[in-house]
């Protein structure tokens, strides 16, 4: 039997790189991190035993550069490469290149990756092994098959995963347009625009089975994960086990997953994903196999007591599994929440910025897998997931309550996240009862995003401003005109009021409340007899997983900056990112709602449309332009004004 590796290169970044390094350290294996220029001071770089720069900020020139990664492995004496997830984790060419360079790729063979990565071949292969599959077809019959099946249908990139490029089509009159958009996203994300189409199962559950296979023919499954809580086909809450499955269905789905793994000669940790009609869990269909570690692997670790990264390493080093299917036991309940750099109050657009204050939950049964440090710069260059909060409890109701409490304890000031949204989602009646499906979040997202900013947030911000005005006493005496208490000569004191603004909302003027307590890291205010406590950093306030950037508002400066661009006519960047498509030029006549530009950030496209019919009178960007949030992109002057 081969011995455990001495040195392993982690070909990834962020929370998964930190997670893999943690197990390497526990096993006494030397870890090598890699980093782009944007990540020179990142947490995974600090926590590894050594680190190698592999290129500039762009992922295509760093984390996706096979020559740079292989060179880093050679220079540091690494014997194996752990790809994490994302980037090159499911890239058969990378697995093959590692093998050719004499490196062990910690994952399945290049052949298994290629087979299961091609959704069309994967379905054919597992179907031949007796695993049930969703009805559908693939290029070149995508459009024809969609029309034959009738709506609703789901368009999927053959070469990709993670929900990227998927399109649900309920109206076939827009089928051709949706196919074109899906191809464009697939090409941008995976370099391959091949599509397949599947029958859409309404109100489906997304349930996946974790499998583990060694090089000696042993394959076991480690139970299921419920991943039905998704937004834009991206999982946001996952749990193990699932309330939907009884023991018989769990055993049947587990056996089907094992057969799917055997059908491609799988070795390592992998996940077989099934779509399950909520009304009849016995009717499950194979969707795809993920030939890597999953983001949600911690919930399986917490209910089985197994370290999946450790078993990936042991299997890759040639060890047989030390247990059989009968030895696998599921204990209690585990739930995970994915913390992403996105702003629910602005339609979940990607966010960014510098982490000014960070507090991550921990304690009995609470685990945070994170790539963050205070001072971390979150850019639009990479995936928006920042961290994961995972809890384990004896039963599901306790686990849900525990996770809500942990999310309330999470603070990432400086970068808007979805933590508060997820906390409210966990209290949704259908989530609490277990009656959720993959469409629940999209249906009810609006009700889980608070309208406006609570009064106490503005009050706390005003209290911070007043504290900042306090003068320093001069020789034991303070000039009454300097004191921030509203004192006036010959008149009653007037409460201090501050003009404040939260991005995307109208400015407000707020009186500073009396009796507030302000420290360097927090502020407490009392409104109508109720005490409200916030964590704070600079102009940011945070509470219960939510955060607000409350800025000073200067009406004069705002009026001057708005003179050049009338608000309704101006098209501004809704998020930091890159302009990928420009469909118009200065002087073009456009109609209301016409698509003018596309901005992309964190692998998400956002279409910028004309606010009204008119003429493009200004265009400040070209394809490839990097833009900041709220940066002016173009101006569309209404037809009447343009004529004048």
Task: Please tell me about this protein's structure.
The protein is of the alpha+beta class. It folds into five domains: 7-106, Rossmann fold (3-Layer(aba) Sandwich), CATH 3.40.50; 135-199, Dna Ligase, domain 1, CATH 3.30.1490.20; 204-448, D-amino Acid Aminotransferase, Chain A, domain 1; 455-472 and 481-553, Glycoprotein, Type 4 Pilin, CATH 3.30.700; 563-643, RNA polymerase II/Efflux pump adaptor protein, barrel-sandwich hybrid domain (OB fold (Dihydrolipoamide Acetyltransferase, E2P), Beta Barrel). The chain has 18 helices and 39 strands. The protein has an eight-stranded antiparallel sheet. A five-stranded parallel sheet has the order 3-2-1-4-5. A five-stranded antiparallel sheet has the order 26-27-28-29-30. Helix 2 links the parallel strand 2 and strand 3. It is globular. It starts with 6 loop residues before the first strand and ends with a helix. The model has no long low-confidence stretch (mean pLDDT 91).
Q: How many separate structural domains?
A: 5
Shape, per Cα inertia axes = globular
Under CATH at level 1, the class of the largest domain stands as Alpha Beta
What is the strand content? 25-35%
Low-confidence stretches: none
Query: What composes the largest sheet?
Result: 8 strands, antiparallel
- Biggest sheet strand order reads 14-13-10-11-12-15-22-20
**CATH architecture name of the largest domain:** 2-Layer Sandwich
Based on secondary structure, the structural category is alpha+beta
């Amino acid at each position: 039997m081969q011995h455990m590796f001495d040195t392993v290169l982690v070909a990834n970044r962020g929370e998964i790189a930190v997670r893999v390094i943690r197990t390497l350290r526990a096993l006494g294996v030397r870890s090598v991190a890699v980093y782009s220029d944007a990540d020179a001071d990142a947490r995974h770089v600090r926590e590894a035993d050594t680190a190698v720069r592999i290129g500039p900020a762009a992922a295509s020139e760093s984390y996706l550069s096979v020559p740079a990664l292989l060179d880093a492995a050679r220079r540091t004496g690494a014997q194996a490469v752990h790809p994490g997830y994302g980037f090159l984790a499911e890239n058969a060419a990378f697995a093959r290149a590692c093998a050719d360079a004499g490196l062990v790729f910690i994952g399945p063979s290049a052949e298994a990756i290629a087979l299961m990565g091609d959704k069309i071949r994967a379905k054919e292969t597992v179907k031949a092994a007796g695993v049930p599959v969703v009805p559908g077809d693939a290029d070149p019959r995508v459009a024809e098959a969609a029309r034959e099946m009738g709506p609703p249908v789901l368009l999927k990139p053959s070469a990709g995963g993670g929900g990227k490029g998927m399109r649900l089509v309920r109206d076939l009159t827009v089928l051709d347009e949706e196919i074109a958009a899906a191809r464009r996203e697939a090409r941008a994300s995976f370099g391959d625009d091949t599509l397949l189409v599947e029958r859409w199962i309404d109100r489906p559950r997304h349930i996946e089975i974790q499998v583990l296979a060694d090089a000696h023919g042993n394959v076991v499954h480690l139970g299921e994960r419920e991943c039905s809580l998704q937004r834009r086909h991206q999982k946001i809450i996952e749990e193990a086990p699932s309330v939907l499955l009884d023991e018989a269905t769990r055993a049947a789905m587990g056996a089907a997953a094992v057969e799917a793994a055997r059908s491609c000669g799988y070795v390592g940790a992998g996940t077989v994903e099934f779509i399950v009609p909520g009304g009849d869990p016995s009717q499950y269909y194979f969707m795809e196999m993920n030939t890597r570690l999953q983001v949600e692997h911690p919930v399986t670790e917490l209910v089985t007591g197994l370290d999946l990264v450790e078993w990936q390493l042991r299997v890759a080093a040639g060890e047989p599994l030390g247990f059989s299917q009968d030895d696998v036991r599921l204990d209690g309940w585990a739930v995970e929440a994915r913390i992403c750099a996105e702003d629910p109050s602005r339609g979940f657009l990607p966010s960014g910025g510098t982490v000014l204050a960070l507090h991550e939950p921990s304690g009995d049964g609470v685990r945070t897998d994170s790539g963050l440090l205070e001072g971390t710069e979150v850019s639009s260059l990479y995936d928006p997931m920042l961290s994961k909060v995972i809890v384990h409890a004896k039963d599901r109701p306790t686990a849900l309550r525990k996770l809500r409490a942990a999310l309330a304890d999470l603070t990432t000031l400086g970068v808007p996240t979805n933590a508060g949204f997820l906390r409210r989602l966990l209290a949704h009646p259908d989530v609490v009862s277990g009656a959720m499906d993959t469409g629940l979040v999209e249906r009810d997202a609006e009700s889980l995003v608070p309208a406006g900013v609570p009064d106490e947030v503005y009050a706390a911000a005003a209290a911070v401003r007043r504290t900042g005005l306090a003068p320093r006493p001069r020789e034991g005496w303070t000039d009454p005109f300097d004191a921030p208490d509203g004192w006036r000569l010959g008149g009653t004191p007037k409460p201090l009021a501050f003009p404040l603004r939260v991005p995307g909302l109208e400015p407000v003027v707020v009186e500073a409340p009396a009796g507030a307590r302000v420290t360097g890291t927090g502020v407490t205010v009392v409104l109508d007899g109720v005490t409200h406590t916030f964590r704070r950093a600079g102009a940011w306030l945070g509470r219960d997983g939510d955060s607000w950037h409350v800025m000073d508002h200067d009406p004069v400066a705002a009026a001057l900056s708005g003179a050049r661009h009338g608000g309704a006519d101006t098209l501004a960047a809704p998020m930091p990112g890159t302009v990928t498509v420009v469909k118009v030029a200065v002087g073009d006549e456009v109609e209301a709602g016409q698509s003018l530009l596309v901005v992309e950030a964190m692998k998400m496209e956002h279409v910028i449309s004309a606010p009204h019919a008119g003429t493009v009178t200004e265009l400040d960007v070209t394809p490839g332009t990097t833009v900041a949030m709220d940066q002016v992109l173009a101006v569309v002057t209404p037809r009447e004004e343009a004529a004048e």
